[in-house]
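Changelog note: in this version the structure field was regenerated for every chain. One regenerated record is shown below for reference.
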Amino acid sequence: MRAVGLVVEYNPLHNGHLYHLQAARQLSGAEVVVAVMSGNFLQRGEPAILDKWTRAQAALAHGVDLIVELPFANAVAPADRFASGALNLLATLQCDSLVFGTENTTIDYQSVGRQLAILPDLHEYFRDYQQTYATQLNHFYQETLHLNIDAPNQLLGLSYATANARLKRPLRLLPLARKNAQYQDQELNGSTIASATAIRRLALGQTTAEQSLATVVPADILQALQQQKLLTWADFFPYLRYRILSTPLAELGQIYQMTEGLEHRFHSVIKQVNDFPSLLRALKTKRYTYTRLQRLCLYVLLNIREPAIRQVEQQPYVHLLGFSQRGQAYLHQIKEQLDLPLIARVSQKIGHEQGLLGLEVRVDDIYAQLNGHEQNFNRPPLRVK
């Protein structure tokens, strides 16, 4: 059996994702769909509205055959590191193609990826402190490749292409045009496909839109959105505020990605704000995007230090969240070829602070406190028929 890979967050899974799943099988001709999914915290530095097990269950119910977790170190990171972590897992799981959504399907991602892969680390290349990294990156793409990157999924697509070109055995890249809704559309537009942002706003009661959630998400996700506690930064802000106030300045400066004296800015503004959006506005400068600051807030909340991130990078693994019967058969087919540890159950040993999944367990603990459900221990992989 051949497998096609997907990189997903499913925050939450909606009709646009069902289109992606169906198209992935058609474009690739693969018999098996493998998904790498972020856990309880996401790439833009925010908590998932539903926990990883609820989202994995929905993925399996709607066509994914094998789903694994993208570790926090890659899941909550800039596009290049997010893409690198995900592509390495898909390659480990022997996928031969990747289907990803983008606003521009005319780019030859395979070729562009090879060009970008030979360039030095762009994080070191950009030193204009009056512009955000994203702005400088867009200028670089315009000057070097004559590409105008004006949408999030275009940047992510190029990050996939670059990471893919660096693999020993690159995957076949199959871009898929986004359908109807754009990534950050704030409101539903009457279509049966809406952005995850608009769906979250409606589920959380942050919009007056009259369109029903039932028109844009499958029934099982609708039920979860109506019955489960939906988590946002508003739930975590009191803990973040306490963390900033109670952490000595020198220790705050040791938080992962806390650069250029930002710890002083955190300390100076935290007493002046009462909610998370106000904190982000107070922290904002020309140098940093809201997404960069939001990720940094998450690192502060969870007390993330660089050694913990480096440990995951140096000791990668595959954490299995669930599979279908076809996925189980595929896993049996490739098991002897796996070159990373396959984790089906999180034991006390590997979930210990210094264990293989130590970071994952630690960051999930605070999510579980608010969500009310254990996220790692005694959680076997999900199975669907």
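Spot check on this record: Residues 40 and 51 are 6 Å apart (CA to CA). The chain has a mean pLDDT of 91.
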